[in-house]
């Protein structure tokens, strides 16, 4: 049972700016949760606090019922995919994938043969078997994205975090990777928190979406429930209207018979 | 069709003419500069002839054909002939040293080129305005092939001049080092050659080895110490926000703004009270501190370009702050660190003033101080000095060849993209 809970979490910066205000949110085991909101709404900060890259000013974040506020990022058992992929340029793909495993200490440290095995398995899962000896520079955008995903998944994380992972890809690749991410989630069942500002991405990927604006959680629920029953004007404008417009455009272009 | 006819004709100037238009002023400038040799030698006849030639070349430039006035080409041809004539007169009248041949080349070659090119059929036809649409279009195509080649030739000629200006002193030193006797002067390559100076310097009992040992200890020590201090400092400046950060960065720059001689006396007092005069450690300390600001700024500039997400990814992969630095940031920064190391090494290797002040015994001299001691008031061993100078430069040259790749990479930082 892996569940993540935000309890009255506030993030306040040194200049008194509150990026996240009193957030209460629960992410259930095996769930795909999408944090959705416009730029500067605090969705990335919410994710980065869970990752341990930002300190929590007030409240607490729990993973599996344990408060992780003061645990270093590496100790939380998370995998993260960054917008820019953040692959290590000086390492081969195999080294990139295995870096986290090699950094583990004590009991958590796998034997070298196990690490090689894991790299092979992950490479197979991500269709990277032929790329293992290359450097990140030699890969295409889509391949780099898959390495980043593989690197996050190889340690079998309790929670998988993704911060706008598709925004650097072109439209077609984005579509492909979106399907692939959902397929991976269905296969592995890893609890996932996914940050995006793209309504369509949120609607198609999520088990549940949580919409934020100006640091405040507006509404959360299954995508269609939120769409059919927006809690306030902001959600109506940001989600419902946007989707309606897209549907309308599609209907003008391809009028239904 | 009409439009394109006008266009091709309006834009077409034969590459030869544009080349002359560009290069004759350069030739004039160089000739005027070279007239100073005649001035120094007080050689009135050649000076006057030189001035005349410059004037004729100026006229030649002014009369270069413009594609409309046919008479200009004939006048320009005449002027080119005049320049050639003056050059021959000058050759007959003046001294004929290497420098004179060189000066004459800058008259004869441009004038001959003008003669040949301006009388060629293509240029003559164009100069007299007798050119068809097809001719102009073919000419433009011909220019496209010809211009880069003429341009490259010209660029290389200028570069050769620059290279000779740089290499001449080195050649001279080489000549002094290889000539018998400890004299300065004479023509390059004019006497027998000998390796006696090198042998004397490299002899087992020679002070050269002591100086070399001191220089190596001091330079390597400075490099090591400088990097140990500069790398962490630069990383902290690049990554962390802390009280006094901006002030400290500025203070670092401030120190760089004063000439070294200002801190010489305070340094001396400090070293004296610490008992570090006549020690390598004293120099290492002083050099590291002096080189530190620039090293820190150079490295900080590079660390700033390493994306923060890369470090965050490493944190999530289980690294602590220190591991993030030496497993991810440092391997990416090798070019910058190499450049910084080279810089510290060179600064220490070449430094003279502090080394002279802090060290009073021959046993502690570094190479620059040792070299200077060869030229004393009692005996001026120029041959030994020249030989030793070349030996001192050797490691630097080797280092540069070795580090060249890093230098280019390190100075054009910012190529780290995941």
Write up what this structure looks like.
The complex is a heterodimer of chains A (257) and B (418). Chain A has 257 residues and is of the alpha/beta class. Chain A contains eight helices and ten strands. In chain A, a hairpin with a 5-residue loop joins strand 1 (4-12) and strand 2 (18-27). In chain A, helix 2 (93-103) packs across helix 3. The radius of gyration of chain A is 19 Å and the shape is globular. By secondary structure, chain B is mainly α. Helix content of chain B is 77%, strand content 0%. Chain B has 18 helices and no strands. Chain B has helices spanning 2-11, 15-41, 44-62, 70-93, 98-118, 121-127, 133-178, 196-202, 207-239, 245-256, 264-274, 280-303, 308-316, 321-332, 334-350, 353-358, 367-374, 382-411. In chain B, helix 2 runs antiparallel to helix 3. Classes of the chains: A alpha/beta (257), B mainly alpha (418). The A-B interface holds A 51-53, 72-75, 78-80, 82-90, 99-100, 103-105, 136, 144, 151, 155 and B 307, 309-310, 312-320, 323, 328, 331-332, 416-418.
SSE layout and pairings?
The complex is a heterodimer of chains A (257) and B (418).
Chain A: E1 4-12, E2 18-27, E3 32-36, H1 43-51, E4 58-63, E5 66-67, E6 78-81, H2 93-103, H3 112-125, H4 141-153, E7 159-163, H5 171-188, E8 191-196, H6 199-205, E9 208-213, E10 216-221, H7 223-228, H8 233-253
Parallel strand pairs in A: 3-8, 3-9, 6-7, 7-8
Antiparallel strand pairs in A: 1-2, 1-4, 4-5, 9-10
Helix pairs in contact in A: 2-3, 2-4
Chain B: H1 2-11, H2 15-41, H3 44-62, H4 70-93, H5 98-118, H6 121-127, H7 133-178, H8 196-202, H9 207-239, H10 245-256, H11 264-274, H12 280-303, H13 308-316, H14 321-332, H15 334-350, H16 353-358, H17 367-374, H18 382-411
């Amino acid at each position: 049972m892996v569940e993540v809970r935000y309890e009255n979490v506030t993030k306040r910066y040194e200049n008194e700016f509150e990026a996240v205000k009193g957030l209460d949110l629960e992410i259930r085991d095996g769930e795909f949760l999408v944090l959705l909101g416009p730029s500067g709404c605090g969705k990335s900060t919410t994710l980065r606090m869970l990752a341990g890259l930002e300190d929590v000013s007030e409240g607490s974040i729990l993973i599996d019922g344990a408060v992780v506020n003061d645990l270093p990022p590496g100790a939380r058992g998370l995998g993260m995919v960054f917008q820019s992929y953040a692959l290590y340029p000086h390492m081969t793909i195999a080294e990139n994938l295995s870096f986290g495993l090699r950094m583990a200490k004590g009991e958590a440290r796998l034997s070298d043969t196990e690490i090689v095995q894991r790299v092979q398995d992950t490479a197979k899962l991500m269709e990277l078997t032929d790329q293992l000896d290359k450097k990140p520079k030699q890969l295409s955008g889509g391949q780099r994205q898959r390495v980043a995903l593989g690197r996050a998944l190889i340690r079998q994380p309790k929670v998988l975090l993704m911060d706008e992972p598709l925004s650097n890809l072109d439209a077609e690749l984005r579509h492909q990777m979106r399907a692939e991410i959902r397929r991976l989630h269905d296969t592995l069942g890893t609890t996932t928190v996914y940050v995006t500002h793209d309504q369509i991405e949120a609607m198609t990927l999520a088990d549940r979406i949580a919409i934020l604006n100006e640091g405040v959680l507006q509404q959360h629920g299954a995508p269609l429930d939120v769409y059919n029953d927006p809690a306030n004007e902001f959600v109506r404008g940001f989600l419902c209207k946007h989707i309606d417009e897209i549907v309308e455009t599609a209907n003008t272009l391809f009028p239904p018979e | 069709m009409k439009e394109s006819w006008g266009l091709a004709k309006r834009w077409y100037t034969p590459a030869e003419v544009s080349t002359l238009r560009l290069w004759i002023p350069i030739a004039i400038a160089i000739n005027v500069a070279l007239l100073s040799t005649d001035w120094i030698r007080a050689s009135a006849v050649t000076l006057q002839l030189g001035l005349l030639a410059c004037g004729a070349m100026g006229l030649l430039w002014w009369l270069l054909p413009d594609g409309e006035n046919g008479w200009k080409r004939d006048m320009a041809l005449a002027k080119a002939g005049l320049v050639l004539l003056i050059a021959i007169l000058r050759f007959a009248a003046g001294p004929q040293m290497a420098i004179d041949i060189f000066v004459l080349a800058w008259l004869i070659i441009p004038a001959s080129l003008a003669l040949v090119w301006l009388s060629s059929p293509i240029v003559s036809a164009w100069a007299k305005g007798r050119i068809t649409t097809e001719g102009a279009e073919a000419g433009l195509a011909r220019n496209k092939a010809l211009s880069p080649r003429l341009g490259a030739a010209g660029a290389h000629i200028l570069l050769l001049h620059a290279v000779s200006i740089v290499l001449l002193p080195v050649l001279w030193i080489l000549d002094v080092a290889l000539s018998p006797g400890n004299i300065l002067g004479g023509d390059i390559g004019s006497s027998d050659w000998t390796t006696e100076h090198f042998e004397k310097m490299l002899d087992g009992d020679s002070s050269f080895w002591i100086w070399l040992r001191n220089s190596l200890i001091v330079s390597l020590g400075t490099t090591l110490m400088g990097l140990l201090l500069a790398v962490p400092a630069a990383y902290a400046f690049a990554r962390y926000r802390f009280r006094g950060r901006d002030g400290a960065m500025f203070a670092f720059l401030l120190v760089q703004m004063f000439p070294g001689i200002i801190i010489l006396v305070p340094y001396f007092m400090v070293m004296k009270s610490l008992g570090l005069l006549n020690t390598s450690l004293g120099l290492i300390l002083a050099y590291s501190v002096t080189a530190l600001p620039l090293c820190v700024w150079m490295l900080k500039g590079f660390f700033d370009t390493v994306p923060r997400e890369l470090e965050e990814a490493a944190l999530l992969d289980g690294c602590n702050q220190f591991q993030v630095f030496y497993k991810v940031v440092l391997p990416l920064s090798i070019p910058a660190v190499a450049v910084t190391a080279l810089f510290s090494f060179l600064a220490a290797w070449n430094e003279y003033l502090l080394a002279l002040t802090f060290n009073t015994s021959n046993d502690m001299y570094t190479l620059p101080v040792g070299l200077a001691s060869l030229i004393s008031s009692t005996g001026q061993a120029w041959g030994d000095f020249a030989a030793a100078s070349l030996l001192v430069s050797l490691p630097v040259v080797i280092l540069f060849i070795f580090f060249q790749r890093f230098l280019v990479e390190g100075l054009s930082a910012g190529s780290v993209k995941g």
